[in-house]
Amino acid sequence: MTDAQNISALMADIGIRAKRASAQLATASAACKETALMAAADAVWENRAEIMAENAKDLEFGRNKGLSPAMMDRLALDEERIGGIVAGLRAVAGQNDPVGEVLADWTQPTGLHIQRVRTPLGVIGVIYESRPNVTADAGALCLKSGNAVILRGGSESFHSSQAIHRCLVEGLRAAGLPEDAVQLVPTRDRAAVQCMLTMTESIDVIVPRGGKGLVGLVQREARVPVFAHLEGIVHIFLDKDADPQKALDIVLNAKTRRTGICGAAECLLIHRDIAATIGVDVLSALAAAGVEIRAEAGLPGPDDMVTATEADWGCEYLDSIIAARQVDSLDDAIAHIREHHSQHTDCIITEDDSAAAAFFSNLDSAILMHNASTQFADGGEFGMGAEIGIATGKMHARGPVGAAQLTSFKYLVRGNGTVRS
After folding, report:
1. What is the pLDDT of residues 262-272, one digit of tens each?
2. Cβ-Cβ contacts under 8 Å for 290 (sequence gap 6 or more)
3. I need a labelling partner for 419 at 20 to 30 A (CA). Which of 117, 194, 203, 223 fits?
4. pTM (2 decimals)?
5. What is the CATH topology of the domain spanning 3-229+388-414?
């Protein structure tokens, strides 16, 4: 048997087992799922030394591969970040179970009583790159929503993901749930990804979480429906009525807190009326924080700004770099964002509520913010416990994809000998 045949057989077996597990998980009680997630959280914390040791192997692999500092930051785990994984698992465990939730309830003149209720999607395939915490987040959210999941992590996080996955399986075992409910593809071979994209008989939806290359590949080649998580080309617009201190605080946090996450600001638009005042203060603070500023010619600011090129508009740097330009009006800012954004997250800083309302009304990003750091573009910060990703498409799930977004619905129709005339 060739390597390709071996991978194909491996993935077919994983799919069959996931489908079987999904049928059991769909009817699992809320208490049982909560027990599994709490036990998994305990296992992650108890095994944190092992997880960090496995992560050290991945970091060495990443260094040898020449990963950027931002990618290495995404990959790295320490005790604090493992604590965050544990907190996320417990937060998802404590949420209301979405399965069976009644979304609508009405009675027809015919006497039919109709309910629309949440139901699991079935089997979810999650394909992600270097962040090992996605193993826990995706596993937890799929379990909470009654779905089986097939996880295919990036080659960089191979060892870390396996260590975290073992903890999830320990949780399933403690709750008496099928261990096949959360499976991790046990190979770095990219042929496994190609298989997942065509496993229409066993996978109900694919969630890609990663860069433009990965998402583009999945969207082009998948025969399974896709929840797209595109890049985060995040804009902040400093309106003419922006508060100086809020502008300074928000932009610095949005760019520098963590440069390698999809909610990091990548482009700063500054109203011409404040470019020489608030704009200069904000750009100077960014430069002082070590951020390279790629600015439109003529934009007032620190002397070490680099002249922007056309390629800088619509670029996701995931690094200590930001593009900047001045605009003449709110309409000009909206026009620029429409042309260059990825429909992920965009923000306006202003004290003019009518300007904020126009910004919200005229842009169709999955997340729009007013006077808040774009680093809040995160399912945990939205009260979802965790997220699989930020969906930038417009069908089914949009924005942070939590447990509720991993469900569909069905109609329950009750009569009493009711017939149609």
Report:
1. 899 999 999 99
2. 256, 320
3. 117
4. 0.81
5. Aldehyde Dehydrogenase; Chain A, domain 1 (3.40.605)
